[in-house]
Design brief:
The chain has 338 residues and is of the alpha/beta class. It has one domain: LmbE-like (Rossmann fold). 41% of the residues lie in helices and 12% in strands. The protein is built from eleven helices and nine strands. The strands form two sheets. A seven-stranded mixed β-sheet has the order 5-4-3-6-7-9-8, sandwiched between helices. A two-stranded antiparallel sheet has the order 1-2. The chain is globular and about 75 Å long. The protein starts with a helix and ends in an 8-residue tail after the last helix. The structure holds zinc ion (ZN).
């Protein structure tokens, strides 16, 4: 048996030092080991080192780039559909990402057919809003905070060269929402670290990360830092609600056959569509009512009083912390300064 002195000596042997260095170069933090280049010279053979990762070039068209993450194929649309339509109308680039495929989100159907149906629904929404959309092929209800998923989120933010990133807060009611929020928070800052995910060009500037609104109070309630009037695009947002038929017209996983009229009864179908529209119009109006004081900070008290529909966002501390002036640049919807 090797005594302590002998073990200590062993660490000093060059072969052991070399093995230790190799272990440090090849990260083993969960999942598949990723090769990392040495940051400084040392004893490694320079010829064996891969080229340095390249930073993503900045977008040069003067347009903002926004990426929104939601747990399911309907969350981004509900949380940020109006603001996305306003950005898109100004020529800015918006992408929605659903972190699961929504394949258990219905009372009557599930699996592949539902996932395909829901992807088609959000693709229709993307057309309505003038944006891009992507659905990750992860089962609904099974999203986990893994290294693989952190890398996926990091790559998506980098590939979009995002200026703004929006997600759920990590204390939302649904595990897929919570873990989406956690994964996106975990990607904040790491998107700027060159040797994290060196296969995808890193960002040289941490984006501004924001949370979409929820009503949960613990451990802390949502605080609106920016509120966007969406009156001028409300018809587009309500058209998305209509397009997300499996979730709202049919009621999603908590719906039932009593919600869905006989398709041949056109009056009943129209009444059901109107009922859904009114429910959601009231929900979007309640956002403006809740945050009218904050609205007034951005657009003045007179204009704020006239706003009927809004969306609200909270700044995440882990992204870049925008000044009030930068916030107005990133949300270029307000004519007057306070
Ligand atoms: Zn959801």
């Amino acid at each position: 048996m090797m005594n302590l002195r002998a073990m200590f000596k062993c660490w000093l042997l060059p072969a052991c030092v070399g093995a230790l260095a190799a272990a440090c170069i090849w990260g083993t933090g969960g999942g598949q080991a990723q090769p990392r280049e040495q940051a400084t010279g040392g004893a490694a053979d320079p010829a064996a080192l891969a080229p340095l990762p390249q930073a993503a070039p900045p977008a040069e068209d003067g347009k903002l780039r926004i990426i929104v993450f939601g747990g399911h194929p309907d969350d981004c649309e509900l949380d940020a559909g109006g603001t996305a339509a306003r950005w898109a109308a100004l020529g800015h680039k918006v992408k929605f990402v659903s972190c699961t495929n929504g394949d258990i989100g219905h009372w009557r159907m599930a699996g592949g057919p539902l996932a395909l149906r829901r992807r088609t629904e959000v693709q229709r929404c993307a057309q309505i809003l003038g944006i891009e959309t992507e659905v990750l092929d992860i089962h609904d209800g099974e999203l986990m905070v893994t290294m693989e998923n952190r890398r996926t989120i990091c790559r998506l933010i980098r590939e979009w060269r995002a200026d703004v990133v929006i997600s759920h807060r990590p204390n939302d009611y649904h595990p897929d929402h919570r873990y989406t929020g956690q994964l996106v928070m975990d990607a904040a800052y790491m998107v700027t670290v060159p040797y994290f995910c060196p296969d995808t060009p890193y960002l040289t500037r941490n984006p501004v990360f924001l949370f979409s609104e929820d009503g949960f109070q613990r451990p802390n309630p949502f605080t609106a830092d920016v509120v966007v009037p969406i009156d001028e695009v409300i018809e587009r947002k309500l058209a998305c609600v209509d397009a997300l038929e499996s979730q709202f017209y049919e009621g999603g996983c908590n719906g039932g056959p009593e919600l869905v009229p006989d398709p041949s009864d056109s009056a009943a179908v129209a009444a059901r569509r109107q009922q859904v529209r009114e429910q959601f119009a009231a929900r979007f109006a309640a956002v403006a009512d809740r945050h009218r004081q904050k609205l007034a900070e951005f657009c003045g008290a007179d204009a704020a009083r006239k706003v009927r529909y809004a969306e609200a966002f909270e700044i995440c501390e882990y992204g870049r912390r925008p000044s009030d002036q930068e916030l107005r640049t990133l949300f270029p919807f307000f004519e007057r300064s306070k």
